[in-house]
Design a protein that fits this description.
single chain, about 15% strand, 3 domains, alpha+beta, 4-stranded antiparallel sheet, about 290 residues, 9 helices
Length: about 290
Amino acid sequence: MRAALVLALAACGSRPSPAPPVIGPPAAFEPTPAPDDVVVAQVNGHPVYGACVQGQAARGADRKAALDQCIDFELMAQAAQRFATNPDVIEATHTAMVSELVASDYEDAYTEPAQFGGNWQMFVGRNLFHVRHEEYRASSYVRVVVPDKATPAEDAAAHALADKLAARFADERGLVGPEMLAIAQPLAGNIKLAHEDVEPYRVGALDPGYAKALFAIPEIGRTAPDAVRTKWGWDVVAYTGDVPAADPSDAEVASALMPDVKRGFFTLWVERIRKQLGIHVELVPDNIAKLEGR
């Protein structure tokens, strides 16, 4: 056998033109060469094209080795024809065809906002807050829980305990969430405190009292000076992280959100294909149900 084939060995001819949609595995076809390509060898009557040799040479093979590799590839391709009906080969062929369809007709074809029509604004609207937004703050709290039907005296007692905790935290710097409960719970005795690390939120997405206290804290790692009443109880609030406000240009928004829009638009694109090809999809519920136990 001639020089060993490299793993990245290209097809012997130029890239074939896209095949028309088919149901089932595609029929075998000869590669369609570029207009200026040349036949450099014949293997049992099947051509080997210069583009293959040039491709292998570009990967580091000398001219003779590149030609040998392309001839070997065509030889093996012919020997492999007997696997054309193998289920694994058919499945791999389908997968390769779908991958090429998505790459050429979707990923490469949809690159500008206008190509998505009115769907662009719809999908951007759903995701715009990720890239254009006001300030978000992360936080943590310890809470003296006040039940819904608590008496004024019970509420006052919870308030007093929360103020005691707030005073304890007043001189702390560099606080992170887990530290809060470890410091506060011993001071609360047998009263079980609630605690949570809260991901970044804007002002309008938080309890009003909680938000006012959080966004008044001057620096990360500190707490609000006073306990704040929320609908769940009396909270001592710590400011633990920040996502600064962002106001990118429309072009920057388009660049940042293109992947999100493509993910959202993909199902609509597939449905367009179904309609264009007149494909009817029919589910078999009884057989689908059988899969649940597997």
